[in-house]
Amino acid sequence: MAKLVRVNKPYGVLSQFTDRAKRPTLADFVPLREVYVAGRLDFDSEGLVLLTDDGALQNRISHPRHKLEKAYLVQVEGSVGTGICRQLLTGVPLSDGRAVAIQAHTIAAPTWLTPRHPPIADHRLARSSWLEMVLTTGRNRQIRRMLAALGHPVLRLVRIRIGPWSLDDLNLGEWRLETVHLPKSRQSFQRSTRR
User: Fold this and answer.
1) How many domains does the structure of the chain reveal?
2) What is the pLDDT of residue 193?
3) pLDDT tens-digit series, residues 103-116
4) 51-63: pLDDT as tens digits
5) One domain for residues 96 and 132
6) Among residues 28, 42, 122, 168, which one is catalytic?
7) Residue 13 confidence (pLDDT) above 80
């Protein structure tokens, strides 16, 4: 059994435990040690980060060859319609190759999200729209680059799911410890939650 920690990372927090520049890190929220990040989330992104004490599980979560789905809520500048979603699904040319979402659709503004701190300027919010996107790749700032290439800069990016794990009941800055039985094949993960 491996330890797995789900964290709801706030905006402006590094997905690591130390920082020479003394910026906020996961250590400000998670008092556990000997757990390591399994797939980073940018400083200016929010949402689900997974930590584990097991190298095989860390690899299963973060290595691109396992194609673990990652779902995001994305707020962008401007009005996004089906044409933009279609382009995200067929692929967007980037400097490091074509990037493709496996799901992309517009959604209503999620009312359950905690307001971002610092807040986004009102004039930018007034002209924004929301998408839900699912990827199986995790290239550097991939969603931001895809949407910028299509003329819709990202205002807010929240990861809500990695494989079978989601934000569920986690409030901003909260964490939960679980145990995971690592499958020998591509079967589903078995998990149990401890509080």
Assistant:
1) 2
2) 47
3) 999 999 999 999 99
4) 999 999 999 998 8
5) yes
6) 42
7) yes
Burial code (b: 16+ CB inside 10 Å, e: under 16) for 91-130 equals ebebeeeebbbeebeeeeeeeebeebeeeeeeeeeeebbb
Q: Residue 160 is encoded by which pair of tokens?
A: 């809500």
| Catalytic-residue membership of 53 | no
Q: Tell me: the pLDDT tens digits for 114-129?
A: 999 999 999 898 999 9
117 and 190 both lie in a single domain = no
